[in-house]
Amino acid sequence: MKSKTIVSVSLGSSLRNHQAEIELMDFRINIKRIGVDGDKKKFMQVLRELDGKVDAFGLGGADLYLRAGRYKYQVVDIAKMVSVLEKTPIVDGGELKETWERKVPQILVEKEKLDLQGKTALFMSGMDRYGLAEGLSQQGCRLLIGDMPFALGIPIPLTRLSTLRFLSIIMMPVLRRLPLKVLYPTGKSQETRVTRSLHLFKRADIVAGDFLYINRFMPDDMKGKIIITNTVTNNDIETLRKFGVKILVTTTPEMNGRSFGANVLQAIFVSILEKHPDKILPEEYLQLMNTLKIQPRLLYL
Predict the structure, then answer these.
(1) Most buried residue, 100, 102, 201, 216, by most Cβ within 10 Å?
(2) What's the pTM?
(3) What are phi and psi of 152, to 5 degrees?
(4) Is the separation of the CB atoms in 64 and 78 below 8 Å?
(5) What is the pLDDT of residue 182?
(6) Cβ(33)–Cβ(19) below 8 Å
(7) Considering only CA atoms, which of 92, 106, 133 is closest in space to residue 265?
(8) Quick check: 45 pLDDT over 90?
């Protein structure tokens, strides 16, 4: 059995660090998350030290690209930091978000028998989860897209993906050049809750997006809500239970008591396929998901 080593280097909090060992197909895969608490120099140092010594990196706590449908723009701040790599590929999970997460709502309806028709889904960021937003829209959900309220502080949600695409074409060339701390909560700021746009949470039946964004802005009263997200710890689950969340869906599977992010899963696939990420087709990711029978995790809280 071949061994693979995956390291997710995150600009987020070190409090969420975790390790796991799993077996997939004919591979024994060692997974490690290293949070650097927002320290850019430490982030780059970790990449330099492990470059060529691990099979693939996952980029956590930020995205290398801003995306909306077929449009994507590289985030300048992140691109500079990952440019220290010479040997080991790094991925941010974006390709899985665009392919796999688009299918998740259909799976929830057909296999889990969740009724999504007519429900209102609040997205913390449509640019971060465009595929999932499109998938929920296809299942009859009304959308509240929160890029402007939550990322920019402009209290106007979008309701159409077509509007998001149009604004993305205009905004992405500017957003990609903003300092990292403006685009993403990093380090200690991830651990601080600042409730915002409470009226949007009240209108929503479903809240979807990166858990750090959800946790940062959600109110204490989340009674009856459905959360669709990615990486959660056992403590996160207990917090959601305490706040009254009805159903928790994680788009990535549980590994040793923890659901890792899309960046980790994509890094695992890159290591298994033994190809540069630029050479991997979307269909290859979906084929691996099907081969491994990977399904979203659903918990009734």
Answers:
(1) 100
(2) 0.86
(3) -110, -10
(4) yes
(5) 63
(6) yes
(7) 92
(8) yes
The per-residue pLDDT of the chain, averaged, comes to: 89
Largest CA distance in the chain: 53
Residues 209-259 pLDDT 10s: 989 889 989 999 999 999 999 878 888 999 999 999 999 999 987 765 666
Read off the pLDDT of residues 254-284 as tens digits, 9 standing for 90 and up: 765 666 788 999 999 999 999 999 999 989 9
Burial class (CB in 10 A: 0-12, 13-18, 19+), 157: buried
Provide the Cα torsion 190, 192, 194, 195; round to 10°: 80
Residues 176-210 pLDDT 10s: 777 766 666 665 555 677 888 899 999 999 999 98
pLDDT at 255: 64
Instruction: Report CA-CA distances (Å) from 185 to 40, 74, 122.
Output: 13, 18, 19
How does DSSP assign the chain, residue by residue?
-EEEEEEEEESS-GGG-EEEEEEETTEEEEEEEEE-TT-HHHHHHHHHHHTTTSSEEEEESS-SEEEETTEEEE-HHHHHHHTT-SSS-EE-SHHHHHHHHHHHHHHHHHTS----TT-EEEES-TTTSHHHHHHHHHTT-EEEE-IIIIII-----B--HHHHHHHHHHHHHHHTTS-HHHHS--GGGGG------HHHHHH-SEEES-HHHHHHH--S--TT-EEEES-B-HHHHHHHHHTT--EEEESS-EETTEEPPHHHHHHHHHHHHTS-GGG--HHHHHHHHHHTT---EEEE-
Q: What tokens were used for 60?
A: 């956590």
- How far is residue 170's CA from residue 8's CA, in Å, rounded to a whole number? 31
